[in-house]
Amino acid sequence: MTRDPARDADDASQEPARDAMPAVDARLLVRDEGIRGYVGEFWRKTRSGELGSLPVVIAVIIIWTVFGSLNSTFLSAQNLSDLSQQIVGTGMIAVGIVFVLLLGEIDLSVGSVSGLCAAIFAVLNVLNGMNEWLALLVAVLGGAAVGLIQGFFFAKVGVPAFVVTLAGNLAWNGLMLQILGSSGTVNIPADSIVAEIYSTIYHSPAAAYVAAAVGVGLFLVASLLDAARRRAARVPSRPVAEIVLRTVVIAAIAFVTAYILNQYQGLPLALLIFLIVLVVLDFVLRRTTYGRKVFAVGGNSEGARRAGISVPVVRMTVFSIAGAMAAVGGLFLAGQIQSASQTSGGGNLLMNVIAAAVIGGTSLFGGRGSVWSALLGALVIGSIQSGMNIMGVSNAVQFMITGSVLLAAVVVDSLSRRSQKAAGRA
């Protein structure tokens, strides 16, 4: 029987394919190399522009070192505890900005929305006697509705988000003035739910340590369950040793924070609520279908549309979330000063919340960021302001320094994106 040369050549060409080793995920190779592999992976990511939270962590260390060396009061337990409360209002609003930035858009109305919702609560509860919980709910839903309206004009009508929210910044500020009326200021009683939520501190040392232990425990359980789910699906997962190391690092941060807070008065309720909100919204972004849709739309809206994602719905809901978080932040700020006035939501609030989101590591170009950026960025902004207030620096200089830090964060973001493009990762 005569063999076909063409068939023999074809069979020979297919032999290596049968014997070839299956592709191995690069992350598995890194973990097999141990510490050396992780160090190499860290430097590779750094060179390719994947900086993550590294710049802002370095910034916090530098800021605290400088101000701590200039004045020991800055690193005192009292100042750090006060700082943890003061960043909550700005941080809450910045969380909503993070969602918008993930789409590659901007919301210039969050300052006015925060003031409007604080005014709604104050007028309904203080002047009209509405139940404070109901007034609180109306204020938050009002913020969500405002965001939804702006999202509709952006997503459905096609008006650029910059224009829509710039117009909203003026319109909602005017509505706030109309609601406050001729008096211009409504004082919020110290026993109001808004004021109490901000000012309540759990003085028992056990409260801070228990909160730290619960947080660390939840992180460990969630990490182990995620690793088990990935192993069951036969996809790369973190080894137990890495999970334990991460848990130890987080535990150190959590318990040191609890110790510092207990050196003054204890655990502020406002900080606890802020951390819970961050955990919940981080889960929404990283562990739910909706969160993946947000990243997909921010990374490539046309590609997301072709994949079957309703881009307008995602955009409208994101702006609604930003409005709701602006309302929550505005209520915390109102509770801090125990009033809603014509200046609520004004001043440098808008600049601070945008700066917090960007400085914290959320990209202005969309598709990259985390809600924890709001905490880190707000910590940087709050630390700079606290340090300069202790040093007696004027507001004019504070504005210039904060603006310079924001510019530096944007430059780092731009350079990081350029490096990722050069490395083929953007």
Automatic annotation (TrEMBL):
Localization, UniProt: Cell membrane
Comp. bias intervals (Basic and acidic residues): 1-10
Keywords per UniProt: Cell inner membrane, Cell membrane, Membrane, Sugar transport, Transmembrane, Transmembrane helix, Transport
Listed InterPro entries: ABC_transp_permease (IPR001851)
Region (Disordered): 1-20
One matching Pfam family: BPD_transp_2
Topology within the bilayer: Multi-pass membrane protein
Transmembrane segments: 51-71, 83-103, 110-127, 133-154, 161-181, 201-222, 243-261, 267-285, 313-337, 349-367, 374-391, 397-415
Biological role: Part of the binding-protein-dependent transport system for D-xylose. Probably responsible for the translocation of the substrate across the membrane.
Protein name (record): Xylose transport system permease protein XylH
